[in-house]
């Protein structure tokens, strides 16, 4: 395992080396080591299976070097990387690639400059960094046990499926530049995401648990929660196509933000003219009940980081305030390209998340950390059902995509689990999974919010980079279509 | 009881330092072994409470020893990076200069050779190398005050730099292809949005659209790991297999005109000779004349299903665990000229080129958007629409197919996501022109 000290020495020595090279104006060197461990679960009561299908891991580490060269009167920028080698030889190899790749980029302004002090220090768990193979495997079986026990207690032992995973992420990075950046970061992330089913009853439940520290991590809870939710939705009914008032649970809220809203609030989407929020800074884009911001400094939240992959301290970036668009997520490159005398962006979100870690192989993208959703006047979760009176509680959606591109705002998704029919402000019966498709425009959803819950939970979805501190949200006039009539 | 344990790590500078390769390999084997032992012990402990837990059983295959060399006209290793940079810069500049309504142009290009060595305790030793060259274009165009029109698309093949010069499914250089996509996107900014229509209508879908359609409603649900529920928490199950006694194998799930197969032996992004378990790759007949026949599988899933192994396991990179993956998965060619398929339609829509999919959990329903939709009136294409697509229940769509074209194309799909951590895989998908029924989906104005 590569230590923080190894990485810091690498970037500091690397900068010293690059400064001495011909034609170099500026340089930024990033070095990282990441381990991504996954324990995949697959228990099927009626099909031979492994239970814990496999404990597995992959590592990612090396050097990424961005160099600004002066060639004649022209400034050229080049990037090079080397994997599994943070020695001087690795730096030289990355530098030679950067020199070979250099190109004139009319939009490049400068490398990042230091900006304040980090709010978060020592927030990782050394016990996660040192976790043994036996302990990794044990976490998987504990998640499985949580679900199996809950099913057995209710006498369900046939037609059971338990899937999902326990994921452990260890990240270490250091960055230094000729502009005075000299920082490092170390984080640990634990997640349990478990989905279970009683297949003959056509019910599915979801449970999840997240932590930055092993001592607070409880995969059994995720397993148990998934089983209890599946059992609760036995006997689900179809609904007819129409327009409904709905409550989106935490997973659907997270899915909508991860796949539709947050990408549209990034300067990379502004840069590509591919967002419904283009030209709307300062304007009302959502219900005045809704406030959204990104905050990478929340201790205990798995999306938190001390510094970005450009060495900038994380912080709070306001995106939507009381329904008005007030900001965008930014990295250094785009913040400088798109700033003008009326508007500027603090580049707190330049991260190199790729392949399950902070990757040395790529330049910083714009990535969220913890997306926090708040209401102007938050209410208890139960009050959301009263707010919609008659409608649907949607607990889990799936395959949410901006079907006509982000800019058009159209999205579609299907309801796959954890959902109920609501009448008179109360849950009356479960909704049959996989029988409803949501077809809407995200602008309508944002503008039709009628209540936001005060209870929030760290939530992540498959393939998502960020954590959402997700409330439940009541929305009126949502188009739902009855589908898959050929499935009984 | 036996159980799996895995360890993965990129080998980095192995070519320049073979000693580091041995070190990584030895360390990795030790870790994988420790995990497998720990997992096996726990499995045995749980067995009394969970009777379906079983040891790992792999279907038997012949241990192969082989070397596969890459195929190319122009060796990717001889293409200077400067040439690639200059090409992309030049093309994106040309795209922007087509019209001031082009707000954003994106071009990337890559060429290279990947080499994988597979060895097993059964005696296999397979050294496979494949070239891969790909170009991607993205364009965003917008009329003042209008909604931007966005297009992203790819060309590519498992060959050398000649792909960028025109040796690809489009038979166009990357530059010509990018400019064509730019002009098409600009054209769309001038036309109306497709209206949503609640009742099914006649739709003719072109081969590019059918590449994504076959991917989503035939390819994914015929992957044996989905069938056996391993993807329940991620990419979903398959409506084709509920359990051993209740499934669609041997049953009519599509019109008798429909045949679909997955064939890694032919050219395309899904080509290879051996899969990531060392199993020789072979054509898998998924649907024959509308009847479901086989699933794509790996050795463990083949053993569970008591099917012969068919070599469909692949990992995006060798440090990831192999999953069941599509190869070149296609609808088979029919016998009707595409022009005739359209000419026979009194009133309907021509759905051209895929864009974005959204599929139900067990692949039983889909909504897929298209780059362009034309109205068909009395056998002729009349009006062009934007931001449209179709939605249908998968079985209804497949059963309603009443014409299959004698055209046939296989397109590169470079970004199929599956697994945890998610692996992005290249596959080939395609087919002929098809005619069926579906509901139209359009842009929902806010």
Which secondary structure elements does this structure contain, and how are they paired or packed?
The complex is a heterodimer of chains A (488) and B (446).
Chain A: H1 4-19, E1 24-44, E2 51-71, E3 74-83, H2 88-101, H3 126-129, H4 133-153, E4 160-177, E5 182-198, E6 203-211, H5 219-232, E7 242-248, H6 250-264, H7 267-271, E8 290-295, E9 316-321, E10 324-325, H8 332-338, E11 350-351, E12 353-354, E13 357-358, E14 365-366, E15 370-375, H9 381-388, E16 391-394, E17 396-401, E18 410-417, E19 420-423, E20 426-430, E21 436-441, H10 442-447, E22 449-452, E23 457-459, E24 467-470, E25 473-482
Parallel strand pairs in A: 7-16, 15-24
Antiparallel strand pairs in A: 1-2, 1-4, 2-3, 4-5, 5-6, 7-25, 8-9, 8-15, 9-10, 11-14, 12-13, 16-19, 17-18, 18-21, 19-20, 21-25, 22-25, 23-24
Helix pairs in contact in A: 1-2, 4-5
Chain B: H1 18-46, E1 65-68, H2 81-97, E2 102-119, E3 125-141, E4 149-157, H3 162-165, H4 174-188, E5 192-193, E6 197-205, H5 207-219, H6 224-227, E7 260-262, E8 284-288, E9 291-292, H7 299-305, E10 313-314, E11 323-324, E12 328-331, H8 338-343, E13 347-359, E14 365-377, E15 380-386, E16 389-393, H9 394-399, E17 403-404, E18 409-418, E19 423-431, E20 434-441
Parallel strand pairs in B: 1-3, 5-15, 6-13, 12-19
Antiparallel strand pairs in B: 2-3, 3-4, 6-20, 7-8, 7-12, 8-9, 10-11, 13-14, 14-15, 14-16, 16-20, 17-20, 18-19
Compact summary:
The complex is a heterodimer of chains A (488) and B (446). Chain A is an alpha+beta fold.
Task: Name a few traits of the molecule.
heterodimer; A: 488 residues; alpha+beta; 9-stranded mixed β-sheet; 6-stranded antiparallel β-sheet; 10 helices; globular; B: 446 residues; 6-stranded mixed β-sheet; 5-stranded mixed β-barrel; 20 strands
The secondary-structure class of chain A comes to: alpha+beta
Measure the end-to-end span of chain A.
53 Å
Q: Helix count of chain A, per DSSP?
A: 10
Silhouette of chain A = globular
Number of helices of chain B: 9
The stretches of 5 or more residues of chain A where confidence is low (pLDDT under 50) are none
Low-confidence stretches of chain B: none
For the largest beta sheet of chain B, what order do the strands appear in spatially? Answer: 9-8-7-12-19-18
Order of helices and strands of chain B: HEHEEEHHEEHHEEEHEEEHEEEEHEEEE
Rg calculated over all Cα atoms of chain B: 23 Å
């Amino acid at each position: 395992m590569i230590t923080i000290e190894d990485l810091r020495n690498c970037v500091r020595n690397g900068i010293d080396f690059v400064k001495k090279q011909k034609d170099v104006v500026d340089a930024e060197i990033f070095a990282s080591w990441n381990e991504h461990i996954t324990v995949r679960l697959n228990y099927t009561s009626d099909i031979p299976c492994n239970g814990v299908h496999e404990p597995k891991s992959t590592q990612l580490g090396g050097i990424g070097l961005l160099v600004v060269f002066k060639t004649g009167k022209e400034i050229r920028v080049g990037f090079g990387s080397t994997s599994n080698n943070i020695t001087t030889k690795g730096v030289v190899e990355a530098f030679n690639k950067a020199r070979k790749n250099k190109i004139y980029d009319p939009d490049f302004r400068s490398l990042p400059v230091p900006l304040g002090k980090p709010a978060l220090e020592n927030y990782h768990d050394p016990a996660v960094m040192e976790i043994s193979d036996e302990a990794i495997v044990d976490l998987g079986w504990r998640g499985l046990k949580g679900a199996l026990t809950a099913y057995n207690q209710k006498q369900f032992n046939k037609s059971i499926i338990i899937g999902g995973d326990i994921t452990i992420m260890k990240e270490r990075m250091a960055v230094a530049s000729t502009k005075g950046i000299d920082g490092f970061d170390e984080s640990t992330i634990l997640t349990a995401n478990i989905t279970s089913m009683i297949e003959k009853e056509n019910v599915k439940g979801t449970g999840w648990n997240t932590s930055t520290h092993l001592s607070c991590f409880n995969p059994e809870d995720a397993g148990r929660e998934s089983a209890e939710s599946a059992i609760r939705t036995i006997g689900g009914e179809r609904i007819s196509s129409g327009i409904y008032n709905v409550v989106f649970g935490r997973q659907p809220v997270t899915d909508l933000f991860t796949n539709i809203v947050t990408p549209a609030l990034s300067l990379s989407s502004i840069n590509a003219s591919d967002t419904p929020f283009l030209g709307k800074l300062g304007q009302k884009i959502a219900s005045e009940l809704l406030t959204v911001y990104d905050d990478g400094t929340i201790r205990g939240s798995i999306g938190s980081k001390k510094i970005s992959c450009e060495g900038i301290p994380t912080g709070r970036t306001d995106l939507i305030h009381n329904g008005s668009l007030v900001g965008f997520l930014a990295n250094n490159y785009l913040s400088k390209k798109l700033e003008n005398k009326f508007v500027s962006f603090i580049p707190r979100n330049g991260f190199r998340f790729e392949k399950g870690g902070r990757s040395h192989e790529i330049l910083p993208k714009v990535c969220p950390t913890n997306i926090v959703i708040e209401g102007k006047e938050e209410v208890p979760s139960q009050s959301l059902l009263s707010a919609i009176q008659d409608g649907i509680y949607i607990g889990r959606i799936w395959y949410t995509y901006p079907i006509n591109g982000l800019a058009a705002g159209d999205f579609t998704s299907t309801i796959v689990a954890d959902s109920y029919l609501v009448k008179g402000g109360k849950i009356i019966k479960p909704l049959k999974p996989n029988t409803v498709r949501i077809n809407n425009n995200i602008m309508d959803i944002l503008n039709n919010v009628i209540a936001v819950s005060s209870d929030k939970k760290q939530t992540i979805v498959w393939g998502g980079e960020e954590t959402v501190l997700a409330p439940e949200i009541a929305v009126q006039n949502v188009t739902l279509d009855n589908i898959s009539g050929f499935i009984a | 009881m036996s159980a799996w344990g895995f360890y993965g790590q990129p080998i980095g500078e192995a070519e320049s330092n073979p000693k580091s390769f041995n070190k990584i390999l030895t360390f990795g084997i030790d870790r994988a072994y420790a995990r497998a032992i720990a997992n096996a012990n726990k499995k045995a402990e749980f067995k009394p409470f969970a009777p379906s837990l079983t040891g790992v059983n792999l279907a038997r295959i012949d241990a192969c020893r082989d070397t596969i060399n890459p195929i190319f006209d122009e060796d990717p290793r001889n293409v200077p990076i400067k040439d690639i940079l200059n090409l992309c810069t030049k093309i994106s500049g040309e795209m922007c200069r087509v019209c001031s309504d082009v707000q954003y142009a994106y071009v990337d290009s890559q060429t290279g050779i990947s080499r994988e060595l597979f060895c097993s305790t059964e005696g296999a030793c397979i050294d496979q190398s494949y070239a891969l060259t790909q170009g991607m274009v993205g364009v965003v165009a917008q009329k003042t005050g209008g909604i931007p029109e966005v297009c992203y698309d790819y060309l590519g093949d498992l060959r050398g730099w000649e792909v960028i010069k025109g040796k690809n499914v489009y038979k166009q250089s990357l530059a010509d292809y990018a400019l064509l996509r730019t002009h098409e996107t600009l054209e769309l900014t001038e036309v109306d949005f497709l209206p949503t229509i609640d009742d099914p209508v006649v739709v003719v879908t072109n081969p590019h659209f059918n590449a994504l359609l076959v991917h989503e409603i035939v390819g994914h649900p015929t992957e044996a790991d989905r069938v056996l529920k391993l993807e329940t928490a991620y990419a979903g199950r398959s409506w084709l297999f509920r359990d051993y006694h209740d499934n669609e194998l041997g049953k009519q799930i599509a019109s008798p005109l429909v045949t679909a197969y997955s064939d890694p032996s032919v050219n395309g992004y899904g080509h290879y000779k051996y899969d990531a378990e060392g199993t020789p790759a072979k054509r898998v007949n998924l649907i024959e004349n509308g009847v479901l026949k086989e699933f794509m599988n790996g050795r463990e899933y083949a053993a569970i299903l008591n099917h012969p192994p068919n070599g469909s396991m692949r990992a995006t990179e060798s440090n990831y665990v192999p999953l069941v993956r599509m190869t070149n998965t296609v609808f088979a060619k029919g016998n009707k000229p595409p022009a005739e398929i359209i000419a026979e339609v009194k009133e309907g829509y021509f759905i051209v080129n895929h864009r974005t999919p959204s599929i139900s959990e067990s692949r039983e329903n889909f909504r897929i958007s298209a780059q362009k939709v034309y109205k068909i009136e009395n056998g002729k294409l009349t009006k062009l629409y934007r931001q449209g697509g179709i939605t249908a229940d998968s079985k209804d769509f497949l059963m309603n197919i009443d014409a299959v074209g004698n055209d046939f194309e296989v397109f590169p799909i470079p970004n199929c996501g599956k697994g945890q951590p998610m692996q992005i895989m290249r596959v080939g998908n395609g087919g002929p022109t098809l005619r069926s029924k579906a509901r139209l989906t359009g842009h929902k104005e806010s």
